[in-house]
Amino acid sequence: MMADKSKALPEEKLNLHPRNLHRSRYDLPGLIKALPRLRDFVAANDFEELSIDFTDPEAVKMLNKALLKHHYGVNEWDIPEGFLCPPIPGRADYIHYLADVLAEGNNGKVPTGKTIKVLDVGVGANCIYPLIGHKVYGWNFVGSEADYIAAASAQKIVDANGLSGNIEIRAQSFYSGIFKGVIKSGEVFDITMCNPPFHSSSKEVKEKSTRKWKNLGQEDKGADLNFGGRNNELWYDGGEPRFLNTMITESKQFARSCKWFSSLISKKTTLDGCYKSLDYHKAADIKTITMSQGQKTSRILVWRF
């Protein structure tokens, strides 16, 4: 009888997608070998296990650099101070679940290669989704970005890793648009993705950050824990519900340009309004995928017309 290898994995990792490379504990020795600078941030924790301080922004950024280099062949990666530093395992999960959606229309087989074109709405300074999606599945990406500093950072990452033929960064010049000003005439995407700002104001961001630090028994350090984030990354006037309603309304206008649309949904309460909006705009197919990492649960809303 074969041993149940899943029992060797920490429980909080088992809810990651089966194809996610990060279901087991971080191989810190292997990551240090890939990026020796990580060694300065690794030490034994209270359980005598090697770890990093996940409340230290520099430690988390160095871990990200090591993960991207070790698992995805991204040799050059950095973000400007104050921008969102995303957790790699959760970001990879979104990519894998989108691959499953695309597989449904491909006889159950995940389509790979540059013929698959994905639009990442709000690619951010970190450019994480295109980096992972291209490395794992060979897809081509367009990443839109309204913040010129973030767009420049993403472009720098693309250029430094020789990926300009596979990842294109486009500035979002239409102030209130999501797809407007980004999708070109005659262009067709297999699927779109987005990690939207889910707070409604900078005050809400600050209050949540303060609660996090308090729960850790530490003084508020004036940042949203290790992940940082500028205003346009973290909040939108009207919050997640208004952003998603705008996206759904605009997606109807681009129904012929995108085979599928998708977005992360952080708050479960946002879903009812999204379903009503999709029903109003006569979406032909709607999927809701639950995605979790540790104690955090989010959802991927996927639709088409």
Automatic annotation (TrEMBL):
Q: Which Pfam families match?
A: Methyltransf_10
Q: Which InterPro entries match?
A: METTL16/RlmF, rRNA_lsu_MeTfrase_F, SAM-dependent_MTases_sf
CDD domains referenced in this protein's UniProt entry, alphabetically: AdoMet_MTases
One GO molecular-function entry: 23S rRNA (adenine(1618)-N(6))-methyltransferase activity
* EC number(s) from the headed UniProt entry: 2.1.1.181
Catalysed reaction(s) here are: adenosine(1618) in 23S rRNA + S-adenosyl-L-methionine = N(6)-methyladenosine(1618) in 23S rRNA + S-adenosyl-L-homocysteine + H(+)
Q: Which UniProt keywords apply?
A: Cytoplasm, Methyltransferase, rRNA processing, S-adenosyl-L-methionine, Transferase
Task: Look at the named UniProt entry and state the broad enzyme category this protein falls under.
Answer: transferase
Report the main location listed first in the record.
Answer: cytoplasm
Q: Where in the cell is it found?
A: Cytoplasm
Q: What family does this chain come from, according to its entry?
A: Belongs to the methyltransferase superfamily. METTL16/RlmF family.
PANTHER family recorded: RNA N6-ADENOSINE-METHYLTRANSFERASE METTL16, SAM-DEPENDENT METHYLTRANSFERASE
Function text: Specifically methylates the adenine in position 1618 of 23S rRNA.
Q: What's the protein here called?
A: Ribosomal RNA large subunit methyltransferase F
- Species of provenance: Mucilaginibacter phyllosphaerae
